[in-house]
Amino acid sequence: MNIGDKIKEQRLKKELTQEQLSELLNVSRSTVSSWEVGRNYPDLETIVAISDLFGISLDNLLREDMEMTKDLSKKMRWNNYYKRILVVIGILSLIYVGFNGKLRMDEQRYLKNLTAHSWKQDDYRYSGSYALEEGGVLYSTYVMEVGFNPIPLTEHNPWVIARKDKLVVKVKEGNKRNVVISKANDPKVKYDATVEVDETGNLINSDPSWSDEKEQSLKAYLKKYQKEYVELLRETASKRKEIINE
């Protein structure tokens, strides 16, 4: 006997019409009818309510109806999957809110420090750009506005670029020092490249795509202006530190 037959049997024993049973279970009469003819099954919550109403155990109600038991088991598995998915979504949401809050606090700190050290907004270039001219050096930076884009935290940590005559450098996250060698800055430059250097102004890593001639040319340029680059990078790192306030 399947569960639909048992529901009908118990309903008749209680001398209830389908309409009356539907009202007791808070469902439509057609829903009760579809149970009894086996078109579909009640959900788990309703099965518990039927068990309580008729005073029979869930075991007796479900016994012999293998199809119903399989369907119920499947639904319970999916409910567990949904719960796990919701937990993961909840955790990710908390992480996002936490990181976003951290980014907003950092943004406000950067803006406050820029103002305190006389940096001026440079919106004619792009929004969020700031500039400072000091000792013949033009410094520039960019404070990324916190929004809903999943941009890595380090991308919000300002870089500082410095230009003195034809020499251009930038200091990035982790105080990584870069020298920008470009024909646009110095027409005598043979090869364009942005290279990472150490505190003494020496090239750290070569690009595998460089030819030997290009590598030697870049090294020679660095060597020629090594003293100037070291000093400019030192000042640029100091300016960045003022903004980050680490």
TrEMBL record:
Positions of the HTH cro/C1-type domain: 7-61
Annotated coiled-coil segments of the chain: 215-242
UniProt GO molecular function: DNA binding
Family annotation (CDD domains): HTH_XRE (cd00093)
Record keywords, A-Z: Coiled coil, DNA-binding, Membrane, Transmembrane, Transmembrane helix
PROSITE patterns per record: HTH_CROC1
Cross-referenced SUPFAM superfamilies: lambda repressor-like DNA-binding domains
SMART domains: HTH_XRE
Keyword Chaperone: no
Domain of life: Bacteria
Listed transmembrane segments: 81-99
PANTHER family the record matches: DNA-BIDING PHAGE PROTEIN, TRACRIPTIONAL REGULATORY PROTEIN-RELATED-RELATED
Name this protein carries in UniProt: XRE family transcriptional regulator
Species the sequence originates in: Enterococcus silesiacus
Taxonomic lineage of the native organism: Bacteria, Bacillati, Bacillota, Bacilli, Lactobacillales
